[in-house]
Amino acid sequence: MLRIDVITLFPEALQPALSSSVLGRGRESGLFDIKMLHLRDFATDKHRTVDDTRFGGGGGMVLKPEPLAAALDSLDIDYENIDRDKTRIILTAASGRVWEHDTAVKMSLMERLVVICGHYKGVDERILQLYPIDEISIGDFVLTGGEPAAWVIVDAVVRLIPGVMGNFESAVDDSFTEDQLLGSPDYTRPAEFRGLEVPEELLSGNHVEIRKYRRRMAIAKTYRNRPEILEDVDLSKEEIEFLKKIEKSK
Ligand SMILES: C[S@@+](CC[C@H](N)C(=O)[O-])C[C@H]1O[C@@H](n2cnc3c(N)ncnc32)[C@H](O)[C@@H]1O
Predict the structure, then answer these.
(1) I need a labelling partner for 194 at 20 to 30 A (CA). Which of 84, 144, 204, 233 fits?
(2) 77-83 long-range CB contacts below 8 Å, 24 or more apart?
(3) Is residue 149, in this structure, part of any structural domain at all?
(4) Could you report the average pLDDT of every consecutive run of 10 residues in the chain (250 residues)?
């Protein structure tokens, strides 16, 4: 079972995520476990200080190394002999490697994840020298704190644990899952809405045709929204012809 520890200054910020339907149920069913470590509990002075000004000047505070190190040391992890196939320590950071579906898949196979939420200007850099940490960004923008990023990371990981999603089959053709393609467009009842009909292939009941159709539509969506992904996808002759047709019709 995957155990996740989140080190944060704002444990309450993650509560809604933990009690949400899918994550809440998964946790209650014992499919994964998640614990919050309040960084302030690891401060040693009477003011429970966790941050200080930056050496070198400039505005903003930096999370001090001592409370962070104490929080990490409180976990039963042998950092010097860490098995990175089983345990990962993640620091949420705008300057980290960008989080992708493949990373989520890799992390969902771990036994142990620790997610550190930064705040203010971030954490004292020496923490990265002392612990085997993966810096992870959830995109090329800057948040005020790591909590939303931790929420994103935890959600993306635990939904891949078998049993967490009520219908695991539905995750199989989500975006980035098959050949990294984006997901195909979906429809539900009514079959006609404001003059627009659901594509007949989806109503045919022919599963082979439906699969082919969905893959073609996934290719079309990927071409429109993320064409660079298609460079690494193996397309059949038929699909290459289909792509040429879309390109021509632009
Ligand atoms: C204001 S940011 C610090 C930005 C940092 N000084 C920099 O230049 O990259 C505060 C915290 O929010 C979190 N954060 C901000 N943007 C993020 C992103 N794109 N992905 C993950 N975490 C992010 C990190 O934990 C970071 O320590």
Answers:
(1) 204
(2) 77/112, 77/114, 79/131, 79/132, 82/132
(3) yes
(4) 97 89 88 96 96 96 98 98 98 98 95 98 98 98 98 95 82 86 96 98 96 96 96 95 92
Q: Are residues 139 and 21 in the same domain?
A: yes
Match 């903003």 to its residue by tokens. 60
Query: Which residue range is the domain that position 242 belongs to?
Result: 172-248
> Can you give the pLDDT at residue 70?
98
Q: Helix and strand tally (H, E) in the chain?
A: 10, 9
What total of structural domains would you count in the chain?
2
If asked whether residues 140 and 183 sit together in one domain, one would say no
Tokens representing residue 44 in the block: 């040693």
Q: Is 142 in the pocket of ligand 1 (CB under 6 A)?
A: yes
Q: Is 139 in the pocket of ligand 1 (CB under 6 A)?
A: yes
- How much distance in Å is there from the Cα of 120 to the middle of ligand 1? 8
Q: 139 and 62 in one domain?
A: yes
92 CB under 6 A from ligand 1? Answer: yes
